[in-house]
Amino acid sequence: MQSIFKPALTALCFSVLVSGCASNSRELEAAHVSTAGYKGLSCPELHAELQSSINIVHELAGVLDEKAEGDKAQMAIGMILFWPALFALEGGDGAEAAEFSRVKGEINAMENVAILKECQPAIDVAKNYHADEQLARLEEQKAKDAQQAKASKLGQ
Questions:
Q1: DSSP string of 14-55?
Q2: Which pLDDT tens digits describe the chain residue by residue (156 residues)?
Q3: Which of 62, 145, 147, 153 is 20 to 30 A from 109, comparing alpha carbons?
């Protein structure tokens, strides 16, 4: 009877510990932001504001991804050396993740206003941003697939 509960308890502990880790920026969704604050901007202002927000998102993504990698490293070390120390992991997403989601939402709102105003420079910046995001997701998925293929070869 005891052997039935051991795998379940191990899985439960692992899931609780992993949920405390910081999220990768690609895992965070954009918050809903109203377009009302951007409708009064001229096309050049909209373009400049959009570019500024994209720069902020890139900076925050770097911070968030660094935290997520740090948590993963601590998790790996803790699992190997001393698993009770994992309960001390800071984890969580914090203020940077909230700001990241908000700014991504602002980018979406500005893009919608740019489309309504037919502001091509801002539309182009938004399209490039989304294309870069999609490319990064594909590269990340490709790396994960390669890791899984390598792990499955080692397991055979």
A1: HHHHHHTSPPPGGGPPPPP--SGGGTTS-HHHHHHHHHHHHH
A2: 455 555 544 544 444 444 446 666 777 889 999 999 999 999 999 999 999 999 999 999 888 888 877 656 566 555 556 656 556 555 556 788 899 999 999 999 999 999 999 999 999 999 999 999 899 889 888 988 888 888 787 766
A3: 62
| Structure tokens that stand for 2 in this block | 């005891």
Length of the chain: 156
Q: Considering the entire predicted model, what is its pTM?
A: 0.69
15 to 69, 75, 139: CA distances (angstroms): 17, 12, 26
Q: How many whole angstroms separate alpha carbon 111 and alpha carbon 132?
A: 15
Look at residues 69, 38, 67 and name the one whose alpha carbon lies nearest to residue 140. 69
Structure tokens at 70: 């740090």
* Rounded to 5°, angle at Cα 98 from 96 and 101: 105
